[in-house]
Design goal:
Oligomer: heterodimer
Largest interface: A-B, 20 and 22 residues
Strand content of chain B: 25-35%
CATH architecture of one domain in chain B: 3-Layer(bba) Sandwich
Strand order of the largest sheet of chain A: 3-2-1-4-5-8-6-7
CATH topology of chain A: Rossmann fold
Helix content of chain B: 25-40%
Distance between the termini of chain A: 34 Å
Structural class of chain B: alpha+beta
CATH class of chain A: Alpha Beta
Structural class of chain A: alpha/beta
Shape of chain B: globular
CATH architecture of chain A: 3-Layer(aba) Sandwich
Distance between the termini of chain B: 42 Å
CATH superfamily of chain A: Vaccinia Virus protein VP39
Strand content of chain A: 15-25%
Largest sheet of chain B: 9 strands, mixed
CATH class of one domain in chain B: Alpha Beta
Radius of gyration of chain B: 23 Å
Number of domains of chain A: 1
Largest sheet of chain A: 8 strands, mixed
Shape of chain A: globular
């Protein structure tokens, strides 16, 4: 654990130190992240096309763009982002997850730079990316305001920042914690702490203060008929937010 | 172990000479470059899905093979699909519109009359020469940067694992794909390799096909007449030509096939009558056994069956390729949807969706066409009366007739996006 990882809680990291084989098992302990992939990638694609320009059906929406996946874990989101044409860097503080991610990407023939570094270190080094994604991460950090400022610093002017997380509502408490962790057992107990959840309005306010314009906000929810997460209007549990960094 | 890192050939002794196997990576590998495999490849290529087609046959066949008299009835839904993937324009060269279909029983006063004006202003479909379909699809695939045709190229083995499929090619290279598609026909070797069992039913009938020239125009009319010894279809082709598809008991078919050309023409003339004037053969006469065959599953881990590899139906209702195109359109839609999001195109989830989507459609049509044939293969008077009444009923109750027609036109059911009318595609 690096001393520069100011916003990261070691207890939170331990929750993602799962067995290597489990990261990529769609029915394993990280099943919800797999199930979220179609919806969150649809959101990211739409936001990216809105920011970087529309592409024809056969085109790659992230071609020529540098992408940073913060808290990339085993690479569940980093790989699709690379397939969409992005030059992807994935960072995480769980060494085992990165090991899994590196091996998996090599086997898929994908070039992704995986680094065991905190976001703060990249920001301090002045690194910038066209697209920064922090999906299901902010609810696990100790100082969300500082974390958002770091993400902002990592986003190039004119670039795009996508954050997905859980809302701090009674409904999120019931569904994401009581339901997913205790009743359905989709997530290990203790995965989430409700007090840490951030409301969309809070997130938007922090982003505006960091020089961002919030372009898009969407909810995401489980559709039992399709057995999948889907984008929806209701942001009371899971939500996704895309913000564009205004030029200097 | 998948050959992800290349093969390593080792010699005993001091020297180790590593021989790297060249690996071609793609998202979808299609084994079988026939009409269905090529149509799937073009549909995937249009959406930028990295696709490789492997077939033993060369992409460019010598012109002599144009003697192939086979034609295909391309229903309206299929036309829309082919148009949307940019492949139908080139087929129009030999496409003859079907403006009207008449289904009748020989020596019966009743007939079902399908006029395209009953369901809209588009033709019911087109009759297109198979050779032209294939050439048009190959030309289209070559225009698409995402599609590679390895034709001619044989494969020596396939292997599947949880992450993908590997096709070992005869030239020593390996093809590594997220999804392997078997488009290798009714006698699919891959289907057998996957351990998918089939159920089949031999009709004891042989199908005879030939192209005929005639003196009088056909006016875009397709006829299907049920004779006591089997169904006989006349399909309008470009110019004053028609294609016949004639099913007979195997023994009888053998006798007909043995006839000299003039006697064969006389037999056909006898069945068609005088409405087309004098008939003459314009192609060799070809035949094929009529077997109904369907696979018990359409998918296994990392692989899917399409077209005749999934099910071969009785050609009587002219639905074989239309069903195959529905496979191709459905699979392409699922795969392109995953590709668009950078997701694994051959995941268990994607394959489960394909299996669910196609199973109902395919089995329903197998049942319908098989039912029609069995109904007509039996010359019992009571049955005959029942079907005459049935025909008359269908013709006199427009909504029912429209239902039959829409099914025959391939525009019913849970249609893939590219088979829907253009305005519906926009909304979707």
């Amino acid at each position: 654990m690096s001393s520069t990882s100011g916003s990261v809680d070691p207890q939170e990291l331990a929750k993602f130190d799962v067995h290597a084989n489990e990261w990529w098992d769609p029915r394993g302990p990280l099943a919800p992240l797999h199930a979220m992939n179609p919806a969150r990638l649809a959101f990211i694609r739409e936001a990216a096309e809105g920011t970087f320009g529309r592409v024809p059906p056969e085109g790659l929406p992230l071609a020529g763009q540098t992408v940073l996946d913060v808290g990339c874990g085993g690479g569940l989101l980093a790989e699709p982002l690379a397939r969409l044409g992005g030059t992807v860097t994935g960072i995480d503080l769980v060494a085992g997850a990165l090991h899994t991610a590196r091996r998996h990407a090599a086997e898929e023939g994908l070039e992704i730079a995986y680094r065991l570094e905190p976001a703060e270190a990249l920001a301090a080094a002045g690194e910038r990316f066209d697209l920064v994604v922090a999906s299901e991460v902010i609810e696990h950090v100790e100082e969300p305001t500082g974390f958002v400022a770091t993400l902002g610093a990592l986003t190039a002017p004119g670039g795009l920042l996508v954050i997905t997380t859980l809302n701090r509502t009674p409904r999120a408490f019931v569904e994401a914690i009581v339901g997913a962790e205790y009743l359905l057992g989709w997530l290990p107990r203790g995965t989430h702490r409700w007090q840490r959840f951030v409301k969309p309005a809070e997130l938007a306010a922090w982003l505006r203060r960091s020089g961002f314009a919030v372009d898009r906000l969407s909810g995401m929810g489980w559709n039992p008929a399709r057995n999948d997460f889907e984008l929806r209007r209701d942001v009371s549990v899971n939500y996704l937010l895309a913000a564009r960094r205004l030029g200097d | 172990m998948p050959a992800t890192f290349g093969g390593l050939a080792r010699e005993h002794g001091a020297r180790h000479i590593p021989v790297m196997t060249e690996i071609l990576r793609c998202e979808v590998a299609i084994v079988g470059g026939g009409m269905t495999g090529l149509a799937l490849a073009a549909a995937l290529g249009v959406d930028g899905v990295d696709t490789v087609v492997v077939d033993r046959m060369p992409a460019d066949l010598p012109p002599s093979s144009n003697a192939d008299p086979r034609v295909t009835a391309v229903a309206l839904g299929s036309v829309r699909f082919l148009e949307s993937i940019g492949a139908f324009a080139a087929m129009r060269a030999t496409a003859a519109p079907i403006l009207d279909i008449r289904v009748a029983e020989a020596h019966s006063p009743f007939a079902v009359h399908y006029d395209h004006r009953d369901v809209g202003d588009e033709p019911l479909g087109y009759i297109v020469e198979n050779a032209n379909i294939r050439d048009s699809l190959i030309a289209r695939c070559r225009e698409l940067p995402a599609v590679r045709l390895l034709m001619p190229q044989a494969y020596v083995d396939v292997a599947r694992d949880p992450r993908g499929a590997t096709v070992s090619l005869a030239d020593g290279r390996q093809l590594r794909a997220k999804l392997l598609v078997a488009a290798d026909g009714k006698f699919s070797r891959l289907r057998e390799r996957f351990g998918i069992r089939t159920r089949s039913w031999a009709y004891g009938q042989t199908g005879i096909v030939a192209t005929l020239g005639h003196e009088l125009p056909h006016d875009g009319l397709a006829y299907e007449t049920f004779f006591p010894d089997g169904p006989f279809a006349v399909l309008p082709m470009r110019g004053d030509r028609s294609s016949i598809v004639w099913a007979l008991e195997d023994e009888l078919a053998g006798a007909v096939l043995a006839l000299p050309a003039e006697a064969f023409e006389a037999e056909v003339q006898d069945r068609i009558g005088d409405r087309l004037g004098r008939l003459s053969l314009a192609s060799p006469v070809k035949s094929f056994p009529m077997v109904l065959k369907w696979a018990e599953r359409f998918t296994v881990e990392r692989a899917a069956l399409v077209g005749d590899a999934a099910r071969g139906i009785h050609p009587i209702a002219g639905q074989g390729w239309n069903l195959a195109l529905r496979d191709a359109a459905a699979l392409a839609e699922i795969v392109a949807g995953a590709h668009r999001l950078g997701l694994d195109v051959g995941s268990a989830k994607a394959l489960a969706r394909y299996e669910r989507w196609r199973r109902f459609d395919a089995l329903a049509l197998v049942a319908i066409t098989d039912g029609i044939n069995r109904l007509f293969a039996n010359d019992v008077t009571a049955l005959r009366l029942a079907r005459n009444l049935g025909f008359a009923l269908v013709d006199q109750v427009p909504p029912l007739k429209q239902l039959f027609m829409r099914h025959a036109m391939g525009v019913m059911g849970d249609l893939p996006r590219r088979m829907r009318p253009a305005e519906a595609r926009m909304r979707a």
